[in-house]
Amino acid sequence: xxxxxxxxxxxxxxxxxxxxxxxxxxxxxxxxxxxxxxxxxxxxxxxxxxxxxxxxxxxxxxxxxxxxxxxxxxxxxxxxxxxxxxxxxxxxxxxxxxxxxxxxxxxxxxxxxxxxxxxxxxxxxxxxxxxxxxxxxxxxxxxxxxxxxxxxxxxxxxxxxxxxxxxxxxxxxxxxxxxxxxxxxxxxxxxxxxxxxxxxxxxxxxxxxxxxxxxxxxxxxxxxxxxxxxxxxxxxxxxxxxxxxxxxxxxxxxxxxxxxxxxxxxxxxxxxxxxxxx
Length: 278
Prior knowledge:
The protein is an alpha/beta fold. The protein has helices at residues 12-15, 23-33, 40-55, 59-71, 76-96, 102-120, 141-156, 170-180, 195-208, 222-225, 229-233, 242-249, 267-277; strands at residues 132-137, 160-163, 184-188, 215-219, 237-239.
């Protein structure tokens, strides 16, 4: 059975009701998702202020904004998801729309990555749940940052994570999957230019059946902008944010994949997907 979840995400606390979910994995998702968060009005204001300070390259003001969140008692997990993640998405969206200069994009992305590194060191790491993740991402600085946030939260939830970043040839990813045999291959924050390689990875893993237990998960990037794309390619799990990804990986594992190889998809469907991505 193939599970593709986009608009509807089953909360980790409800996963046990579906049967077969690992209790430690469910607790890990709850641990990340239910830590103390922001007041909604305060959160929106802090996101806007952090965005403005980041694109200006103002390191002191950026640290001050994060310091205010810490003073409110907000946990590191929620700062990553409710402050850093929406700010990152705003930066990426405006840059794609040519509303940010390259200088502003570079300053904001590098400064935000430094802050993510510092906040990740404050995460509470749960005991291992015995499940492994091999993760990679798209080629840009922003996509690397998104992949890092997803990897940090997965590790905090108890997964053993190996994060390889971006700019990876498809054959090297395939080699790593076959050697490591992870429970999950996570391709987070990919761009449209990554799709041929992702299709190669998915089709090859399905055809040779070398690691039949490995589930393929995607999220962020092009998969947030092109609805139905993940299902068309034959992906098992798709979450729009790192937190959704943590929740999804905690859900019951299915015994069989029924992913659809790209070669069996009608040409018209391929053209529709291509138009969505363009």
